[in-house]
Amino acid sequence: MWHPEIEAGPAPFYERLVHAIAADVRRGALAAGARLPPQRDLAFRLGVSSGSVTRAYAEAERRGLLVAHVGRGSFVRGASSPVPDVPALERGAGGRAGIIDLRCNTPPPVPLMHELDLALSQLTKRGALDPALHYIQGPGLAPVRHAAARWIADSYGLDVAAENLIQCNGGQHGIALAFSSFCGPGDTVLCESTTFYGARMAAEHLGLRLHGVAMDEEGIRPDALDRAAAETGSRMLFTLPTLHNPTTRTMSAQRRQDIARVARARDLLILEDDAYYAYSLRPPQIASFAPERTLYLVSLSKGICPGLRLAFLALPPELPRERLIRGIRAFGYCPPALGALIFMQWVEDGRIEAMASAIQHEASARWIMTQTELGALVVRPGAAHSPHAFLPMPAIEAERVTARLLRAGVEVTPPEASGVSREADTGLRLCLGAPGSRAELAAALQIISGVIAGHGGADRDGII
């Protein structure tokens, strides 16, 4: 009974399992021709998801360590096929040669270097770059927050006061900051039954429990939210009401009003993550229906430029700020200034609108390509287009398709990454902005279409 020794470290589990397979092949613990345990059996013994083991087996096969036989399983390659070197675990989880990576949900690439050069030139001429060399105390630079208030009003249609804005080091920092400031270890945070993986990571790191709330085609159901709040005693709801990640659902105005009503009745604080609002038909925010209890989070990461690591958390006027300010100091001492100053210059020049328009144009083109290639496999999003696509399918099928795609040269988000409850929607998320060109995306979509079209019944790949 083979039992791999998995090294500790920051690399993803599947990478460490591949490393263990390679090490055991080299030292003879796995002989040529040896049959590896079925994925589900090994996952149970290791205490991990079967998707992680499936992904590791597929990657090990791609690297030449294993060979899979239809209906029989995965076997160590014969002695005539030398075992290739496996990169060290420290290399990280970035993209690999020959693999089209659809895991990272970023805006589609458009030329921004000229905009960056222009902003830096203008800041230099104005003598406005000095704050980038110093610690920025408290909630961020006042001129930057005033620019953010203007941008949110113009682009999001929501009026917020600059003094009620907190500058964050990206949306992920904003989520962790809100969770840590208003929840304690062991507390329960309500969220969609399928939610943003970053929120899961933050909750797990902070010792919080996420409780998934049942969804329908518009997102969280108000009756299910009311019941979950009563049963758990939770005092916080985290939600992505617009182009929900990963399912692309968008709440109607009525649904948002209903969610606000339940939150008010159950005394819930709402963290509204509006990362994808720029791609939508601009429905009214939940914050507009429950301004006294909604922390509204907007970020540049999904609609402008992820590398700036900049987001803003709009707070209800009466909400205490002391814990948030302490959280800023605890997580990073102060918000970084350089990216914020560049953003401020783009807002003042009006350039940010042109940049957003170019990104939306490219996103629309990529969505049309996806819909044309994959057709009914893709859920129609709650907007004209979306930076990510969702392909619903049963969990076990999603695991199998993920493994087949990796062998074919396309890597997608692991299907188990977003589920929070048994009612979670299962399927594959495709990040359409991740490929560097439309040609690369087209190649990935063709592979996906072919793999799903050729995917048959149980055990076809020997993947169980």
From TrEMBL:
Protein name: GntR family transcriptional regulator
Domain HTH gntR-type: 11-79
Gene3D superfamilies, per database record: Aspartate Aminotransferase, domain 1 (3.90.1150.10), Type I PLP-dependent aspartate aminotransferase-like (Major domain) (3.40.640.10), Winged helix-like DNA-binding domain superfamily/Winged helix DNA-binding domain (1.10.10.10)
Entry keyword set: DNA-binding, Pyridoxal phosphate, Transcription, Transcription regulation
Positions in coiled-coil regions: none
SUPFAM superfamilies per the UniProt record, alphabetical: PLP-dependent transferases, Winged helix' DNA-binding domain
PROSITE patterns reported for this sequence: HTH_GNTR
Family: In the C-terminal section; belongs to the class-I pyridoxal-phosphate-dependent aminotransferase family.
CDD domains tied to this protein: AAT_like, WHTH_GntR
